Fold this sequence. Notes:
Elements: H1 8-17, E1 22-27, H2 34-41, H3 55-59, E2 70-77, H4 102-120, E3 126-129, H5 137-143, E4 148-149, E5 155-156, E6 164-171, H6 191-195, H7 213-218, H8 226-229, H9 241-244, H10 270-274, H11 278-285, H12 294-305, H13 312-321, H14 327-344
Antiparallel strand pairs: 1-2, 2-6, 3-6, 4-5
Helix pairs in contact: 1-4, 12-14, 13-14
Amino acid sequence: MPPPVLSADAVVAAARACQFAMVGVAPAAPLNPAPFLRWLAAGYGTGLSAMRRRVSERLDPGAVVPGAATVIALGIPYGAGQDTSGRLDRPVIARYARGRDYHLVHRDRMRALRRKLLEMDPTLNTYACVDAGVAMEKAWAERAGLGWIGKHGVLVSRPHGSWFTLSVMVINRSVDRYHEPHPRLCGDCDLCLRACPTGAFPSPGVLDARLCLSYQTVENQHSIPVALRAALAGRVFGCDACQEVCPFNHSGLPPGDPRQAARPLGLMSAAEIATLGRDEFARLAAGTPMARAGYDGLRRSAALALGPDGRPCARAALKRLAVDASPVVGEAAQWALDHGRQAQT
């Protein structure tokens, strides 16, 4: 007896009941491997070692879930997130990272969704992924009609712009209808490519992670290359430059999910972050994306961000950090002091 076919409307309703604002379903046919393999071969993912593992599973859901038939693409908006309560002229933390870690938000809701799907079919098999696994979330979200992959490599949607995070769930059941892939609507616009402070896009839709400030401030636990430091321009964790200029992000966007509202660490200045104690960092970073950078990684980036700041309080903070026990923090602070002197002469 063939397995039952699920109602697409019922699957979407279940996901929305689990607080996913964005839901789409796509057939689980393998992805075209060429773009990803070219990206790997060019070395653009150097440093992201996990991307080179389990490549066949990244491209084919059937290699993860036997009999995979449907991919459910899920999104949770975090909103424009511009409210900093008047504390900062320019926030130093990327918008997605100011609140609760999106991995935890998606995880909890996908667990609830899995329970609902098992109520529909107790024999169902699933695989859930929030960018730390082996699914290509953006590709599946585009296939499932949530939006399109922009020239900056970020998914863009009509109602939410690009201020949202993604996850997917693979199931071994078909649904009675699938959503159409979303057309790409960027047209001739290349504002995002021109806005990148480090020129990290060798071509539209292709990101060289080695040049990306998000990679450098989040994933790189060592020294940030000198050639990229001036481009930080006050950024401490992540970079929204390419998204900030996108015309689809500029007006009429719905509010973000309240669970990802900004927390105190997400609203601190570079000087406040640079002078955090280890215990204070552990308390404030717990459950947020900023924990990924680690204590020394976040202070290293904060020190570099303070370089152009000529105020006495910034200089005093950098002098303390220049003799920090962490070599990566001390070197960054000394560079920032020297860079600041040069900028002011």
